[in-house]
Specification:
alpha/beta, Arc Repressor Mutant, subunit A, D-Maltodextrin-Binding Protein, domain 2, 2 domains, two-stranded antiparallel sheet, about 20% strand, elongated, DNA-binding transcription factor activity, DNA-binding, LysR_subst-bd, transcription
Length: about 300
C-alpha cells in the first residue's frame, strides 16, 4: 500500500475543476483561493506521477486518465460523505445539515405550507434548499450536492428510492369568458393544440401534462413559453391561450386577482405524484422516510 495517498480535499479540488471548467470558479465553489486550489492539484499530480489537467491560458482540458480519476474521485467523496451520514443517522433524527433540491413547480407552492411546521417541530434541522429543474436536481443528487430531492413522478431520476407524499391533480386553466362553453370537466379532445401554453423543455410538468392528455400531437403543436407558471397564468388571463396547472399551485393562490377559470382534466391519469427521493442505499433512508412523513402531514 502506498504511503502517500490523495487527500479528500485534493479530490474535491479535482472534481470542482471538472464541474466548473475554470480555476477561479472551482476555487470559489471550494471556498479557497485560486492559488490554493491550483497548488493542491499540482501536489496531487506530483503525488500520483501523472498529468491530470492540461493548462492553457484559455482552456482547462482533462486528460483521458484525468477523466477516469474524476469519476473515481466522485465515488470516493460520496463514500466519505456516507461515513458522516452513518454517524448522523445513528444520532438524533432530522438534526444537523440536510440539503434538499426542489423543482420550481413545487417549491413556491408547497414550501410555504411545510417549512413553518419543520421549523417548529424539528428546530435542530438545518435545511438548505435549492430550487432547480428536475434534471439538474437529479444530477445534484447523483453527484452528492443534494441529500434528497422533492420532485414530481413519474420521472427518471437515476438510482434512487422515493416515498410518494400525495397526488397532485392537473387542471385546465382558460380565460374566464370561456367558462360558459365548458362543462364541469375538460376532455383532452377539447384542448386546442394551437392555443396550448406549456413550460419549456426541462420541466417535468410539461411531460406530465402531455401524458395526462394522451394526445401525442400536442407536443408538436403546443406553444412553449418560459420557465414560470406565473408567466403562463398572465398569458392565459390576457386571452392568449390556455394551460394546465397543478392543483397545489391553484390552492396556493396562483389564480388570485385573475379571471381565469380552472377545471379538472377528464383523463385516466389526471395527476402527478409528489415525492421525496434519495440515493438508493443511503444510510439516512430512515431519516428521509421520516422527513417524507413530516412533509405529508404538514401539507395536510
Amino acid at each position: 500500500m502506498s504511503t502517500y495517498l490523495p487527500t479528500l480535499k485534493q479530490l474535491q479540488y479535482l472534481v470542482a475543476l471538472k464541474e466548473h471548467g475554470h480555476f477561479g470558479r472551482a476555487a470559489d465553489a471550494c471556498f479557497v483561493t485560486q492559488s490554493t486550489l491550483s497548488a493542491g492539484l499540482r501536489e496531487l499530480e506530483s503525488l500520483i506521477g501523472v498529468t491530470l489537467v492540461e493548462r492553457t491560458r484559455r482552456v482547462v482540458r482533462f486528460t483521458a486518465l484525468g477523466d477516469r480519476i474524476v469519476a473515481k474521485a466522485r465515488r470516493v467523496l460520496r463514500e466519505a460523505e456516507e461515513l458522516s451520514d452513518l454517524a448522523r443517522a445513528a444520532g438524533k433524527p432530522l438534526a444537523g445539515e440536510l440539503r434538499m433540491s426542489v423543482i420550481p413547480t413545487i417549491a413556491p407552492f408547497l414550501l410555504p405550507r411545510v417549512l413553518p411546521r419543520l421549523r417548529s417541530d424539528w428546530p435542530d434541522l438545518r435545511l438548505y434548499l435549492r430550487e432547480e429543474p428536475s434534471a439538474a436536481a437529479c444530477d445534484s443528487l447523483a453527484h452528492g450536492h443534494a441529500d434528497c430531492v422533492l420532485l414530481a413522478l413519474p420521472y427518471a431520476c437515476g438510482d434512487v428510492d422515493s416515498d410518494v407524499l400525495f397526488e397532485d391533480r392537473l387542471l385546465v386553466a382558460f380565460p374566464g369568458a370561456e367558462a360558459a362553453t365548458m362543462g364541469d370537466t375538460v376532455h383532452p379532445n377539447a384542448i386546442d393544440e394551437d392555443r396550448l401554453l406549456l413550460l419549456e423543455d426541462g420541466h417535468c410538468l410539461k411531460d406530465h401534462a402531455l401524458a395526462a392528455c394522451n394526445r401525442p400531437e400536442l407536443r408538436a403543436g403546443a406553444t412553449m413559453l418560459g420557465t414560470s407558471l406565473h408567466t403562463l397564468v398572465q398569458m392565459v388571463d390576457n386571452g392568449l391561450g390556455l394551460t394546465m396547472l397543478p392543483e397545489m399551485a391553484i390552492a396556493a393562490g396562483i389564480l388570485d386577482h385573475t379571471s381565469i377559470c380552472a377545471k379538472p382534466l377528464e383523463s385516466d391519469h389526471p395527476s402527478r405524484k409528489i415525492a421525496l427521493a434519495w440515493r438508493r442505499g443511503s444510510p439516512r433512508e430512515k431519516e428521509f422516510r421520516l422527513l417524507a412523513d413530516v412533509l405529508r402531514v404538514a401539507n395536510g
